[in-house]
Every structure is written in C-alpha cells, then in structure tokens.
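User: Sequence in, structure out. Go.
Assistant: Echoing your sequence, followed by the structure tokens.
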Amino acid sequence: MSIEELVNRNYKRFSESDKAVWAYVSGHREECAQLAIGTMAKKCCVSRTAVMRFAQKLGFHGFAELKVYLKLDNQKTESVSMIDQVCQTYQNVANSMRNKNCDDMCAAMDNAKQIFICGEGMVQTSIKREFKRIFMSAGKMLYDVPSGQELFNTMHIMSSQDLCILISVSGENEKMVQTARQLRVRGTKLLSITKNRENTLAHLCDYQLYVEAGELVETPIHWQYESTTSYFILIDILFLKYLEYRNRKEQTDAAGNTGTTEL
C-alpha cells in the first residue's frame, strides 16, 4: 500500500498539525526519509509529538517505522520497457485488489436502495459502462448520471439509503468534488475511484478504490496515451469480491435459519 493510500484512508482523522506534516512529507519524500524527528518537526513547524502522532495515525508504531516505509516507497525502479511497465501496473492493481478487504464496500452496494455512478470524460464513460455491464449480471442496476446540470438535478433524488460511485482519474475534478460535498450532507454513501495518489475526492468518500498511475506515452501523432485496462481489472476483481460476499452472506443466513428451533 502506498503512502498516499494510507493518508487518504486516515485523512478524516487528521488535525491541522497532521496536515502540515503531510504537506511537507509529500513534497520532500527523499529528504524526510533521512531526517531525525526533531529536524522533521522544525521543518513542519510542529512539535516532535505531532510528528509522532502523524506516523501513528497512518498505522506505524513511530516515526522510525514511517521513515523505513518512505525509503522503500522512494526506491527507484530499474529502467524497463514500456510493455514491462504496463504489465507491472496491471499486476500491482490486481495484487492490491486481491489483498484489499472490500466487505464494507460490498455490504454498502448490497444494501443500497439505489446505486448511482458519475464521471465525465471518455475514460470515465468507458469505466461507467463496464461497471454497469458487469454488475447487471448479479442483478444490481447502476444508474448512469450524465454530467452537467443533470448531475446536480439528480442529486435531489439521492438519499441516505443510496450509494453513489464517483469516478475521477485525478480525484480533483471540480464537479465530482462538489457533488461529493453535497451528497455527504444528504448522508448518501460515497465510493471514489481515482489514481493512487492523495486527492480531494478520496478524502470526501466513505470508500476508496485506487488505480496505480501509469506512464503517459506519446503516440506517432503526438497524442498522450495512457492504458485504462487497470480500471477494468479493478472492476472485475471488485465484482468477484462482491459475489464472494453475497455467497458468504447467504450461507450465514441459511445457517441461522437452520439453527432456529421450533416451539
């Protein structure tokens, strides 16, 4: 798990001091992996205790463990071919999803009265189409919300019993962020799909899914190409995890019913 994912997962618990520490760490990764805790505190204009608490909120025992994590995160990979890089990205997404506990996310999808999915752009449209197609086979209907004014009009029919999936590659799309803020007030459960980096949208959502950022490749006609297959791998594994969740739930319910004694 990357340092960004740890931060996004715990950002709602951050104090102003925590945010100050992260602001410095995110911009000076290699330096922070070498600093003593006292020097780090001075650089961030906080106390030594604040630095220690920041590390603990990310799940580390202390600052020393955070430094080791940063060193590993900062390690430069060997020069590899474009194809090797893409294949490694696919493998990283698959491994991350395989090891991720998605039970709460799957429960939210299973219990939602309605599931909406939002995102604007060609990539996001493809992701939404695949999400709808694959979950339909399990009897879950996803309502594709168009961007623009229709998105804000649709928000009025979303409630605390619903789930809304928000897709933004950067996690900083203004409409998606504004939508998340308004839906949080309504109590609607939110699931974000973004690149694996610190981003505003992930901070606002109840559940987060990440795709590792790939390298942009310039094509012969000078377009910027980036593989989107990682998103489909993510959706496919999430769907399989949802099926496993449903099977476990049905088995538990069946066992409970079997254990009921008649009077």
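User: And one key feature?
Assistant: Residues 137 and 169 are 26 Å apart (CA to CA).
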